[in-house]
Queue: 4 jobs
Job 1
Amino acid sequence: MATPHDHECCQFLATVCYLSGNFIYACETFELEAPDPFEAERLARDRAAASNFHNLRGPELSVEVTVEDRPVPEDDPPPAPPGAVQPVCPRCGSADIICEACAHWDRTMQAWVLGSTYDSERCLACDAQGDLIARWEAVKPQGDMSADLP
């Protein structure tokens, strides 16, 4: 009998747009691993249901999900600048951390512009959450094997 783990996983980008009536009030993009685009859409809808944007008190709440193959980079990403840091989950070690933020609409740029961030942080890998839970660690240069040394 085949299990879900027997299938090869593919990389997908899923964009979830949150609507109130016909008005899109927020969008999020998730990088997902799934065996096919249908499973990627199901995973994206699960994440959307757990999102702060999924507010059931909003009138006529709905979500639109689009899934596309994640582009495979042709080259290695550029190295992090010297002194670069990243937030890391203290529970599982993932760098997939989000924080709550406030943004305002810029009419000239026609985009949301970050106004401020709040203390509440959440790990998307293990769902650890709280105020200022992340550890800040230096970003290791690509190809740096020093972490593997005893």
Note: The chain has a mean pLDDT of 81.
Job 2
Amino acid sequence: MSEHTYIRVLWLHGAPSDPVDLWSELDRNRFETRKLEIFRDGTIGYACATETAGGSRLGTVPVPSLAEIAADKQFQLVVISRSAFEHRWNTRNSNASSSR
């Protein structure tokens, strides 16, 4: 079993102040270790143990199961590869926001 799970969740809503594209690296207990929050205008917030930007913070409780996320109609769940997450993580500063 892999040490981490990588997910991408598209959040279907109309609130301009909330992210619409969420990328998360989860540990074996389903806690976020890194996350990206992409907003409708293209700005990116992110968080990990050592840095944050754009008001993003790591969650303090485990992320729900994949089945629970997929069952909620406001979310579209995509299980992604580590390499896809790493690529997106490594390009996070191109649109990061420090003022959100």
Note: Helices lie at 66-71, 82-90.
Job 3
Amino acid sequence: MKRHIVLLTAISIAIAAGITMYTVGRPDWTTVDEPLVQRPTPVHYRYIPNYIPVSPFKREMNGRFGPDMRELRRAIIARTHESGEPVCAMQILTEAHTLINYTNDNDAVRSRLADLRAALDTPPPIDPFQQSAEDGSWGGCFKAWYLRMHASVDPLKELVQAGRKPQYPLSFLAPVDSPEKLRARLHDLLVSDLPRTGVDNRKELNLTITGLAQLLFIPELAAQLPASMPVAAMAHTLQDFLDNTAQDHETGFWGAWYVVDGEIRKTNDLSITFHAISYRDSDPPRMKELADTLFAIRTRRYPYGWRDQGTQNNHHAYDVARLLRRAWPHMTAEQRIRSAAELTIMVARSLNVSINADGSFDVTPYDSASEAYYFGVSFLDEVGFFRPSRRFWTPLEISDPESLRAVLHKQLMKQDQRNAMIAAALRKLEARD
């Protein structure tokens, strides 16, 4: 499917419009070190919303453990081709990768790498597709609480979609089962002081917001939470934190904050912003500022912009498409024209670069094939490739989307149907107007 050609009516006009928008009369967005906004505050911190953090340990940690990670990832890919995805091993790989990129905890990395080698030699007696009787979570091969919590959301969603209830109480939510606990955890994660703690909280902040926003804001999931949890009060606490504490009032974006030379510096994080707004029905405040910032960071590297280092990545494209959808009612006419041009290019790129000749998705940018399928299908669904009702950005017709739907469906049916990401991808692919 690498050469699968899908014609959007007037595609060349849209692309030409996009190129014009890039070359005529636009601001210079290439100077990434200059802040978008600086504003004085009555306290001694100076907020710089356009900060892009530089980890003091990430390069060293990747240099130390990179060879082992590449070797083990190749072993996982080989095992996947032989007998299907070794999900437990993949979860351990993900946790090791997170420790390498967001901490300087060498001992924790070595421990997880040893666990990974053992899991590849002898798969542990843990079924990652089954709910744990111990705490009601899924993702049993993760050690970190936030990774287990986040890994539990998709299986719970698929359970609810099938009209079933979890077998065991969701007691894994005990660390955040009150407004006070939830508020304290979120505030602790918002600000990172890397030289002092050796930990970058960005990943944990992002996945905590992602998981809890779905559990608290999606009614069908909130109904599954323990009766002892004050769900409405907790949802209010999370929304209040997002809207009145964590959102940057000047840019409309969310992101991790960093202590740098005695100052707090904010980031404009595409991924955290995606998760902060995706699961709520109403728009958050400052959507006009969010739309302006979304275009201002176009040329910057993900997650602080759209750029994905020259590789295809439907995950990043999905984030951008969702934010463009939510910002669409708040855009100027010029921004809407540019959005249409951008999405046209992104769709063409996804079709011609991310899909292999046999209709499978390229797994190179991802930790697993299930991620590749989920984000590939999710991006195409978000832009309305298969469903005109979701085509918010253009009234134009797409030529023969059904042939691609059939090919992708055939490939998805070859995957492990117990995997919640595969199940969600199938559900999106099969949805029709």
Note: Residues 1-29+298-433 form one domain.
Job 4
Amino acid sequence: MHAAIPPYTLRVAQAVQYSGVDRTSLYLAMKDKKLAYLKRGKVRLIRVSDLQRWLDSLETSEGEGK
């Protein structure tokens, strides 16, 4: 039995499931250059590390005003 290897990149639909963030917000973050992505043909791939970094920045910015 082999251990599952976690993915290095996610497609947008996978990133939605992984993060719980809606698709539109992900696309806006990519458009605004707040979330880095790779483009392979027509497919956008998001590094898991970049997605986690972006999510952490959301928590930080929301928590500062409280």
Note: The chain has a mean pLDDT of 89.
